[in-house]
Specification:
about 280 residues; mainly alpha; ABC transporter involved in vitamin B12 uptake, BtuC; about 80% helix
Length: about 280
């Protein structure tokens, strides 16, 4: 029993923190702009591959590689906003049309990654003696990122503007707040979170072109499970999902990870549609 509790808590906290960080990156865009940013999955994969390339191929070390990967992930997220979502929004595209466009750019980026790097999974360099340090780094940085994002979104003026943009985008324009600039910052922050978490995960487990899709599914379910009213709901949902997955892996193996994610999603939709936090978004 002691071994079970220790292993489940350790793996659950690491997995949960990973899901929570990715869910935060998706949540700050989706809950604020209502753009279903599926291309976020491809940004994650891109960040992981760039970290692997800078670390393993160029030998720059994990810290420098994490920085470069986060920068380019943020840049790719910004470009998607500036040259895809923003023009479509300006021309009055509906949410469904933006989602279809997002799926298209996701497929394009993933297949471009496959073309450049191949489809074989890329593994981190010498995992045998760096696995513990990689996981320690992951949980430490994830914890700091989660705390930082919760402080920014709940206690800062930027977080107040985010909530205003979510609740009444027309009103904040009349108040002199530049909603386009605010959205630009949100996409940059979202890209940084995806790039950092992809780098940390790649340093532990490696990366493949379609890894981002599986990660995105978990992050989206965490957002729904946590509740759409607050960004902190993504964190709660991420840790709940992470611990549940750790329990399932302990008893049944990793092949059932996505199954427990969808079971949680169905349970939330049936018994607590507003999510664990129980707060409904005013735009819903």
């Amino acid at each position: 029993m002691t071994e079970f509790i220790t292993q489940v808590l350790t793996n659950g906290l690491i997995t949960g923190s990973s899901i929570a960080v990715v869910a935060l990156g998706f949540s700050i865009v989706y809950h604020t702009t209502r753009i279903f940013h599926i291309a976020y999955a491809a940004i994650y994969s891109l960040g992981g591959y760039l970290c692997w390339y800078f670390d393993v191929q160029l030998g720059l070390g994990i810290i420098a590689s994490l920085g470069f990967a986060s920068f380019f992930s943020a840049a790719s997220s910004l470009l998607i906003w500036l040259f895809l979502y923003k023009p479509l929004t300006r021309y009055g595209a509906a949410e469904n049309e933006l989602m279809v466009a997002s799926v298209g750019i996701m497929i394009m980026i993933i297949y471009l990654i496959s073309l450049v790097f191949g489809t074989d999974p890329k593994l981190p360099g010498p995992p045998s003696d760096q696995l513990l340090s990689a996981r320690s780094m992951q949980i430490t940085i994830n914890g700091l990122l989660i705390i930082l994002m919760l402080v920014i979104t709940n206690l800062s003026d930027f977080g107040l503007k985010m909530r205003a943009l979510r609740d009444n985008p027309r009103l904040i324009e009349r108040m002199g707040i530049n909603s386009a600039a605010l959205t630009t910052l949100l996409f940059i922050a979202s890209g940084v979170l995806a790039g950092m978490e992809a780098s940390l995960s790649t340093n532990d487990l490696g990366i493949s072109p379609f890894t981002g899709i599986h990660v995105f599914i978990n992050a989206f379910i965490a957002v729904i499970a946590g509740g759409s009213g607050r960004v902190s709901g993504a964190v709660i949902g991420g840790f709940v999902l992470g611990i549940l997955q750790a329990i399932v892996v302990f008893f049944a193996g990793s092949a059932w990870i996505l199954s427990v994610s969808f079971i949680l999603l169905i349970a939330i939709m049936l018994f607590k549609p507003d999510g664990i936090t129980g707060i409904t978004n005013r735009n819903d």
